[in-house]
Amino acid sequence: VTSLRTYLQATSSEALAGARQLPAPGALRQTALLAAKRPVVPSEWAEEPPIRIGHGFDIHRMAPKGDPEVRGPVIIGGVKFDDFDLGIVAHSDGDVVYHSVVDAIFGALTLPDIGQFFPDTDPRWKGAPSDVFMEEAWKQMDARGYRIGNVDVTIIAQAPRMMDKNHPQAEPGKPYDHKLAMVDNVASLLGCPASRVNVKARTHENVDAVGEKRAVSCHVVAVLERKP
Q: What is the value of pTM for the model shown?
């Protein structure tokens, strides 16, 4: 955590220096100059805020299981879709929910993104289960004195279906809801009650790669609260 904080302080200083040189028209220029001149009082930032909010997004391609780029079955929120005819194209297991949750937590903590923590050029993460990324996000959050306030997940997928009427455990008029298992999986990995996690899903109305079943994506908003 200390080394990451040092990295962030250095990059933030460079960004601020660059911002002071950016040309801006009219009122924007005046606002930028005032913001750059305003002294930062260390005491204002001495304590962590009571809550932090982060957003995460991920998208992965899907392809027929015989495609050489496919690493394995589609996994979403820790649920493996073995019977689905497409597989995931990714360096790790390509779980878009877990990756989005991790990035949301990292974002809330003002840490580098998941690609910097776990680069796809590192062979250690080839085919890695995304549980390990979630565990690291929890460790970073816990070390900073935070816990999950709530996590809101939106899966965007034309397929596989999150509500499956053909699932062996489906009942007449009641499709099997994969999202319930996803809620439990996310809550377990983040050490919070299931009531703090929400998983929603929608299609992409047959539009673009997601709508054409060539990709699956996910958005996550995470609220972190200070531990008592």
A: 0.80
Cα–Cα dist 155/216, whole Å: 8
Does a cis peptide bond (omega within 30 degrees of 0) precede residue 160? yes
> pLDDT digits over 127-166, tens only?
899 999 999 999 999 999 999 999 999 999 999 999 999 8
43 phi-psi bin (left φ>0, alpha ψ -120 to 50, beta other): alpha
List the beta bridge partners of residue 226. Answer: 146
Q: What is the DSSP letter of 101?
A: H
Structural Rg of the chain based on CA atoms: 21
Between the alpha carbon of residue 35 and those of residues 25, 26, 42, 46, the distances in Å are 15, 15, 16, 20
Cα distance between residue 143 and residue 3, in whole Å:
13
What confidence tens digit (pLDDT) does each residue in 22-56 have? 344 555 556 556 656 667 677 666 789 999 999 99
Three-class DSSP category at 194: helix
Taking alpha carbons only, the member of 169, 173, 134 closest to residue 153 is 134
Helices (H) and strands (E) counted in the chain, each on its own, are 7, 9
Average pLDDT, the chain: 87
* DSSP annotation of 84: S
Strand runs labelled E in the chain: 51-64, 72-76, 79-81, 86-89, 146-156, 163-164, 176-177, 197-202, 215-226
